[in-house]
Design brief:
- The protein has 5 helices and no strands.
- It is mainly α.
- Helix content is 50%, strand content 0%.
- The protein has a domain of 86 residues.
- It binds iron/sulfur cluster.
- Iron/sulfur cluster (SF4) binds next to helix 3 and helix 4.
- It holds the Pfam family Whib.
- InterPro entries: 4FE4S_WBL, Whib.
């Protein structure tokens, strides 16, 4: 059965990027059984370059394991291809870049706080 054809048509695809669960362990058999993509035409998940990924994103929006799926996709090396948790490769690259920027910002802030603490000890 192809779930994609059993789901009601959405008026417009909504990019719902789930909050990463930070749990990138491989899916358990029970979790994998919940994935909607495992019951769908595989071609949906690999749209041609420049083609919209609406159908895949619509299915992912209803998937109960989307947060785990995104965590796995973001942690995968080499990077995974296709649509994962409603995100394209470009979406995931943007998420990772934002995470890296935030990590650098936090490291710089921590370094400044440590410098201030060192100066306080000298004074
Ligand atoms: S969220 Fe992940 S597991 Fe669920 S349908 Fe989308 S790609 Fe498949």
């Amino acid at each position: 059965m192809r779930i994609a054809h059993a789901l009601p048509a959405a008026p417009a695809p909504v990019l719902r990027i789930p909050t990463p669960a930070d749990d990138s362990r491989p899916l358990t058999i029970d979790e994998a059984a919940l994935s909607l993509c495992s019951q769908t035409d595989p071609e949906v998940w690999f749209p041609e370059v420049g083609q919209p990924a609406r159908e895949a994103k619509r299915i992912c929006a209803a998937c109960p394991i989307a947060a785990r799926c995104l965590a796995i996709a973001l942690a995968s090396r080499p990077r995974v291809e296709g649509i994962w948790a409603g995100t394209t490769e470009h979406d995931r690259a943007r998420i990772l870049a934002a995470r890296n920027r935030e990590a650098r910002r936090q490291a710089a802030t921590a370094a400044l706080v440590a410098d201030d603490a060192d100066l306080g000890e000298v004074a």
